[in-house]
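User: Show me sequence and structure for the first protein, then do the same for the second.

Assistant: Starting with the first protein.
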Amino acid sequence: MADFDRRDLLKLFGLGGVVVASSLAGVGSAAGDEPPSPLRLFTGAVPKRTDGHDDFYFVQLSDTHWGFKGPLVNPRADTTLQHAIDAVNALPHPPSFVVFTGDLTHTTDDPAERRKRMTEFRKIASTLRTPVVHFMPGEHDAALDKGEAFIEQFGPTHKSFDHQGVHFITLDNVSDPKAFIGGEQLDWLAADLAKHDRSAPIVLLTHRPLFDLAPTWDWATPDGAKALKLFDAHENVTVFYGHIHQEHHFTTGRIQHHAARSLMFALPAPMSVPKKSPIPWDPAHPFKGLGFREVEDSRKGDTRVEAHDLETT
């Protein structure tokens, strides 16, 4: 696809944060590439696909940390989630679905408070006008009780589903306090993948990165390599994850991995400072470094990743 055509297609869902994917294979930039520039809004019609499925896009929200209190980090912590949901509701073309990729709530040792925060989070999330919403746990939601409270509120911590010819898998690498996926879930993943042709487009959604981004910062999954090995026979695989509170793009073999920004506070670049801690709030630029992502499957032969900057909404 020519650059002009690609840019026009990207503008369809404007407001930044767009992934345009050809069968969701090879999405975005390789590690070290400059991030793409923001997009302008374009209100043209969505082009039709030729594979028997309609074009669609979904929104990824991550690391909302409902219940977090930190005036120096985010003095608007009690309204940031609703601000993001309002931005999604204002998109000119409604997404097919929304997925929250973990850390819905901020961690607490009190089981009653954990459930209270999840109930509050779900009530706010219910204001999304998108009829289908998928929820995944983060370690803040699930590590202290092995996902018990999350399952009560939102159902299984891992699952798979299909949408318009794309197979989606949500993987749990947070319920184990040591961040292992575990043999039982890996067996489930292998059985799930066995049902799909090697050329089928697959989107893998996780909370933690599956590769060793920064193990000493807990930005890794000890048996993530085993999970990725199961995808060796599959040609069109893309991973979207959260946890690191910033945009990051990386490639392992044929698989590209894309991290989403947080909706509560930003974190520094991997290993860029001696100690990992939230980046302080900048009153001159509220919501700087926060945002969400839109993912569009257009199957047009070219791909790109964009991040939606919450500061501009």
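Switching to the second protein now.
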Amino acid sequence: MKVIERWTCAIALVASLNCGTAPAPAQDKALDQLTVAIGQMENWANQVATLGMRAGIFQKHGIELKTYGTQGAGETLQPIIAGSADIGVGVGTAAAMRAFAKGAPVRALAAGFTGANDTYWYVRPDSPIKTLSDLTALNTIAYSTNGSNSHVLVLGFAKELGIRAKATPTGGSPATMTLVMSGQIDVGWGVPPTGVEEALQGKIRIIASGADVPATRNQTLRLVVVNADALKAKKDVMTRFLQAYRETLDWMYTSPDAVRYYAETVRKPESAIREMVRQFYPKEAISPDRVSNIDKVMAVAVMLKLLDAPLTAEQLVEFFQIPPRKK
């Protein structure tokens, strides 16, 4: 597994996560306000909103973001559907489509992440489990929340690879680590930088990654979603949000300040963060405009019974509401 080999290289440089969000500067009261729910907030791919606020990019576009973290797609979708949050980051594509197909006011404002090589599964070092093929029906394997990207991948392990372990929701990666280390869960899940110090110290052993599910490679598996009513009422604000999002992403991959701010947030050496980004987060994977292999995403969702049927062409036009780039 080449992805696991890359993990081995990256682990030597990355330390553990001590998550926190850096305080944002004082904001102009005249700025348009948006509330953003972020699944797995410590993930570099989900840091665009928080880093862009710290850099002043969203403020430049007349927007102030109130951000808060959730434990996964399920928790992120709930406030979007209820209207208590405007935008959700890091929501599994299949979960968002499922909610949309059932009539929920959810739309895709942007792509979130394409591919799955940043999600991994691990065991305690004394575990007899060496690979996914060692799992039996007596074992448990973790995912974050129902409908999340990690959930889809675990279902993919079962459907495509024949893995028989009991899929178990465990919430965020810190809670999952506790369950694994206490022996309550056999196989935990995580994303970098979470867990890499433990791997470096031999406290955990990584056995698989999302890239081991062939059907999910090169697919847009996570989205930035928006409440449909908020999109209709604040269309100009949402367009400016995505302009600022694109600008922030460009800045994240060109300015050393982005790595520095993120390193301060997660309390890691900047050199480790640069290597982590290089190994696991190529810019094109996070592009908000890269919507890739959606037909395959829907086919997998139907196969895994997350969708009753693929969305129609008309539904896809309604679901994807990505504002075009400014020319």
